[in-house]
Design goal:
Blueprint lengths: L1 E5 L5 H13 L7 E5 L10 H12 L8 H10 L7 H14 L10 H23 L3 E7 L2 E6 L7 H11 L5 E5 L2 E5 L4 E4 L13 H12 L7 H7 L11 H9 L1 H10 L7 H12 L2 H7 L3 H8 L25 E5 L4 H6 L6 H12 L8 E4 L6 E4 L2 E4 L4 H18 L3 E5 L1 H8 L5 H4 L4 E2 L5 E5 L2 H6 L3 H21 L10
Parallel strand pairs: 1-2, 4-5, 8-9, 8-12, 12-14
Antiparallel strand pairs: 3-4, 5-6, 6-7, 10-11, 13-14
Helix pairs in contact: 3-5, 4-5, 11-16, 16-17
């Protein structure tokens, strides 16, 4: 075996020099032992290598590799796998006979080198993302600051340019188990390995950082698997916000539920007044011309009161007997309702039917409709994703809902969700409070408020889903108590 020695684990210049000498001497990969650091000098290179060195000096021997290989090798050499050096040397030799080797992605050596390079680049990204500087006691505005980090690979010097560029005016040190970087504002020095005890545990600014982190945490967008993939747990112990992560995750479901139950943010009052004037203009005249439910349903098919008709498949009018004792009002039709032209036939409708059945109520005796008659959505690829209607759209559609209520004249109206409640009462209000209150419409018709069935489908926590579903069924039983004619088994 011939020993080739490098000054350090990521000594690319040393590897390049030794690999060139070995390759020009015709030394096969299996005959080379790659060593890192200082050791005894005997028997490192035989006469063949000395002769090759002379040929290289005289310019009579050359090796040719694509630029891509040099870039790949500079990255791969930072990997912690001890076989990386031999792998790169083997690729170097193969490239002399196979110039296009790196284009063969399925080749075992190429695939392994690319995987190593990807792992190194990811480790560099993690370092730039998760290094946290802490001020040394008595430090000024520009430092000194110290950070502790535990890289997976030998990336310290390769990542240094990011920090010298990003924190050029600061004085800082980054300590790791592999070595350390020290920047005085002008020059970078590489130092020996350190331990976590050499770095400060906290500083005054971290309390502000934790407050900021807690403030921007959005429980409704929490994806734990994605978060751990981007910020692996092994880095948490070195981050000041780490102590907040577990309690924030634990309370995410409750906070998301509270966000859903809150009333939506309203536009400025002037927009509401303008929408109201537009809805009223000509509304009374048109309503007088629609003397029956059938005429109203037919007229609604051509509704252009707001922009939602431009993209929706069709108007989805209400459905049910015109002598129904109860009118259920939802938010708007969904994807399946838009295609079928009927209200509450999609997943939320199935949840609604199931809850009605458990509450002992007969949907066939109820009138079911929505505050908004067209499906509002965002197109994502081939999927149409539900989008909440705004106040102007709710106000524009109030014309049709008022007609429906006038034709049916129910003994009780039930609002399903905040948008329906907003439409029926004409003002915003917290659904959680309205759910417990005895409400009335302007004409004196009793109004009960509860959640929309789609709210139950969106709950991420199974326990919360079971709890809220039971509350929803209890609300529907209250409806049955106020309107006995709606109960199963009762005479129509």
């Amino acid at each position: 075996m011939i020993a080739a020695r490098l000054a350090g684990p990521a000594d690319f210049a040393g590897w390049r020099r030794e690999a060139r000498r070995l390759a020009l001497a015709g030394i096969p990969p299996e005959a080379v032992a790659w060593l890192v650091g200082e050791a005894e000098q005997g028997g490192l290179f035989g006469p063949a290598l000395e002769e090759t060195a002379a040929l290289v000096a005289e310019g009579r021997a050359e090796l040719t590799v694509p630029r891509r290989f040099l870039e790949l090798a500079q990255t791969v050499i930072c990997h912690r796998d001890p076989e990386r050096l031999g792998l790169l040397y083997r690729l170097l030799l193969r490239l002399q006979a196979e110039p296009g080797l790196l284009e063969v992605a399925v080749d075992g050596d190429v695939a392994r080198a690319e995987a190593m390079a990807k792992s190194v680049r990811r480790d560099i990204h993690k370092m730039t993302a998760f290094v946290r500087f802490r001020a040394v006691e008595g430090a000024g505005e520009n430092g000194p600051f110290i950070a502790w980090f535990e890289p997976e690979h030998f990336i310290l010097e390769r990542a240094a340019s990011f920090f010298t560029g990003r924190f050029r005016v600061m004085q800082w040190s980054i300590l790791t188990p592999q070595g350390s970087l020290h920047w005085d504002g002008a020059a970078l020095q590489v130092g020996p390995a350190a331990t976590k005890a050499d770095a400060p545990d906290d500083d005054a600014m971290e309390a502000y950082w934790r407050t900021y982190y807690a403030g921007i945490f959005n429980p409704a967008r929490l994806k734990i698997k994605a978060m751990k993939a981007e910020m692996p747990v092994k880095y948490w112990r070195n981050l000041p916000e780490a102590e907040l992560i577990a309690p924030l995750i634990a309370g995410a479901a409750r906070r998301a539920e509270e966000m859903v139950m809150k009333a939506p943010t309203l536009p400025p009052e002037r927009h509401l007044r303008q929408a109201s004037r537009q809805a009223q203009a000509g509304g009374q005249e048109e309503a007088a011309a629609l003397g029956s439910w059938e005429a109203a349903a037919k007229a609604a098919r051509g509704c252009t009161r707001c922009e939602l008709h431009c993209n929706a498949t069709q108007t989805v009018f209400g459905e049910g007997p015109l002598d129904a004792p109860v009118v259920f009002v939802g938010e708007q039709p969904g994807d399946q309702e838009d295609l079928a032209g009927k209200p509450f036939v999609g997943p939320a409708g199935q949840m609604f039917d199931r809850a009605l059945s458990e509450a002992g109520l007969d949907r066939n005796r109820a009138y079911v409709t929505n505050a908004v008659k067209h499906f509002k959505f965002q197109l994502r690829g081939k999927r149409r994703i539900h989008e909440k209607p705004n106040v102007g759209e709710i106000k524009a559609c109030k014309f049709w809902l008022d007609l429906e209520l006038g034709f049916v004249k129910p003994a009780l109206v039930v609002s399903l969700g905040a948008s329906a409640l907003r439409s029926l009462t004409g003002h915003a209000g917290a659904l959680a409070q309205a759910r417990e209150a005895d409400l009335k419409l302007e004409d004196g018709t009793p109004l009960l408020a509860t959640v929309h069935p789609s709210f139950l489908l969106r709950l991420p926590d199974e326990e919360a889903k079971r709890r809220e579903y039971a509350r929803f069924v209890a609300d529907l039983k209250r409806v049955g108590g106020r309107a006995p004619a709606l109960k199963l088994g009762q005479a129509a």
